[in-house]
Design goal:
This protein has 184 residues and is an all-alpha fold. Helix content is 71%, strand content 0%. The chain has a single domain, classed as Up-down Bundle (Ferritin).
Length: 184
């Protein structure tokens, strides 16, 4: 005879997963950010002309930390939804979009590849959108937790388009002093 888990048991299982997934996603995000200096620490980025909508540099790590926590919580919900239809595909797409997310910082801040970064952020938005839909089918709340992430990716894409438009030679820009460019 099969017994159903109680709400308390399900909640405990979700919390056990969240204790793993939230720090893991945060750690991966911080690891990606550490591959190339950004913000005030990046002379190339400081030399770029930015649009009026560009937030202050301190806002980016704050927003990304919050978004990574939301991603980790949504991931825990879907992992915990055993036997849910579409769970495997949702998890696969989550991994793909997270890999694209983690590749963006070194590509933009390290390699200074603005055009490639635009293409990457478009692919990231598309895979994150599909992930959001699939997560929502597995657990509605998990899908809603990804909505702020989608909004931020769209905003980041608009900021990146502004940088691309305002700095046509940015990929060749080498500011005076120490360079922060990575070679790929």
């Amino acid at each position: 005879m099969r017994e159903l888990a109680s709400k308390g048991q399900l909640r405990a299982a979700y919390l056990r997963w969240a204790v793993v997934t939230v720090p893991l996603v945060l750690l991966l995000g911080f690891a990606s950010a550490s591959l190339a200096p950004s913000g005030d620490e990046n002379a190339w980025y400081q030399a770029l002309v930015k649009g009026p909508a560009n937030p202050p540099n301190w806002a980016f790590p704050v927003v990304w930390s919050i978004l990574y926590v939301l991603l980790g919580l949504a991931l825990a919900m879907v992992i915990n939804a055993r036997r849910a239809r579409g769970r495997g595909l949702a998890l696969l797409l989550f991994v793909v979009q997270l890999a694209l997310n983690l590749a963006w910082t070194p590509l933009f801040f390290g390699a200074h590849r603005i055009t490639a970064s635009l293409l990457l952020i478009a692919a990231l938005f598309a895979t994150a959108l599909v992930t959001c839909i699939l997560f929502g089918r597995v657990r509605r709340t998990a899908g809603w937790l990804l909505v702020p992430y989608l909004a931020w990716i769209a905003f980041a894409g608009a900021l990146l388009w502004d940088i691309h438009r305002l700095n046509p030679d940015a990929e060749n820009l080498v500011p005076s002093g120490a360079t922060t460019q990575m070679t790929i």
